[in-house]
Amino acid sequence: MKLHEYARYDATGLAGLVRKRDITAVELVRLAREAHDQINPAINGVIEFYDDAETVTGSDTGPFCGVPFLRKDTGPSEAGRLQEQGSRLLQGHRPAVESYFMERARSGGLRILGRTTMPEFGTRGSSESLACGITRNPWNLDLTAGGSSSGSAAVVAAGVVPIAHASDGAGSIRIPASLCGLVGLNPSRGRISGGPNKQDAGYGNVRDFVVCRSVRDMAAALDVLHGPQPGDPFVIASPERPYVEELEQPSNRLRVGMPTSPPGTAMGDPDIRGAVEKTAKLLESMGHLIEEIPPLVDFAEYGKVLAGMAHMRFSSLDRTARALGRDINEETLEPHNLELYHVGKQLPLAYAQEIFEGARKIRSEVGEATKDFDILLTPTMLAKALPHDRYRKLTGDELMDAELEIEQHLAIFNITGQPSVSLPLFQSVNELPIGIQIVGRFGDEATLVRIARDLERAVPWSTRRPPVFAGYAG
Asked: Which residue numbers are catalytic?
C-alpha cells in the first residue's frame, strides 16, 4: 500500500483491510511512521513517535484491529511512558498508572504509537506552547489548529493517523475538530471512564474521547471506549444497542432548538452564520422541527464560573511541583498560567462554593430551557482558524475573555454533562473548515450518531483534503 492510499482510509476502513489480511498491523504502523516523517516537520503535531512503535500491542480482533493511534499528552496515561501536558513543569514525567481508556483502546485493536502536542495544561483554545512549539493547521500553516487537542486534530486532518485521542474540558475536542475539519464528539459525563485515578477531572467537566474523520469511526470508538469502571462517580445507563448499529436505525422526527448568542457578544462571521442556516434548512428538509430560542445562560455569570474553575485548578499545582522537585515560576509555567496560579492562591475557600453554586445554576437553567428539545443546533465556533499570534500579548484573564467570545456555545455542555458533536459540514469561501455543533440530551449519544449520519450523507466531507496531507504534502 502506498502512503497516499493509506491516508485516504478512515479507521474502520483500515481495520477492514487488516481483517481481510490485505495488510498487516505492522505495515500500517510503518505507513503511519512514514506519514509522520513526511508531515510532522510542517505541522508539528507529534511530540513523540515511539521508537518501539512497531512492537506495541493491540487486539487482533477488535473493531479497530491494527489501526494506528496517537494519544494527547494529558489525561489517560500509559504506565511508564512520558506524559508532560505541554508543560516544562512536567518535563520527563512518567506516570506509573495505566488508564482504563488505554486498556480499552488496545483491546479494541488500536496501536498507540506516540504522543501529540497541546498548549500547556490545555488551558488555551489555540495550539502553541513553550514546551511543544507551534502546532500548525494543515489547511493553512499560518493559522492555529485549535486547542487543546491541537496535535491530535492536526495529525488526523493531515492523514498521519485516521483517529487520535482527544479530551474536552471546555471545548478542547470540538474546537480543533471545527478548525481542522474533523468529527469531534464530547460524550456525556460518565460515558467514558477517567479511571482509575481521574474519574472526576476538571470537577467532572473533562471527558476523554477521540477526533476522527467519519461518523462510523465515532460510533465504533464509542463502542470500544464506553462503560463504567470501579470508582467512577458518574455512571449512566448503557446504550440500548451498539452504537455502530445506530448507523442503520431510522431517525425519528426531532424538535431542534437553535440558541442565539447573548446580546453584545460576538455573533460570528457571515460564512459561519450561513453554515448554521444551511444546516437548519437541511434538518427541516429531513422533517425535523426547528425553533430559535433565547441564549441559554447569562453570559457574565457563565464567564465567571469558567474563570473560577480555571483559578481553582491552578491553586493546587503546588502538590505536582513538590512531587517533581521543582518550583513554580516563569521558568516552569507560561505567563498566562502563572497568572492563573497566583490568582488562585489568593482566593478564599468560600470562593469554591460560589463557583460550584454558579455551575449548579447553569445546569438548572439550561435544563429548563432545553427540556422540550431533542437536540440543539449551534455553530461550534464563532470564528474560523485565527493566526497563531492573535492572543500572544493578552493576560490570563484577557485570554479567557477573548476565547470565550468565539467559543461561547462549548463549555456550557461540559458543565451540564450533555453530549455534543462538531461536524465538518461546510467550508468558508477560502476553503477553511467550519464546524457545526449538535447537542443531545444527557446520555443520548445514540440520537447524535443517527443525526450525524444523516448530515454526513447529505453533505459528504470524506473527499476533502487539506493542502498538507500525507502522500502529497504541498
From this structure: 72, 148, 172
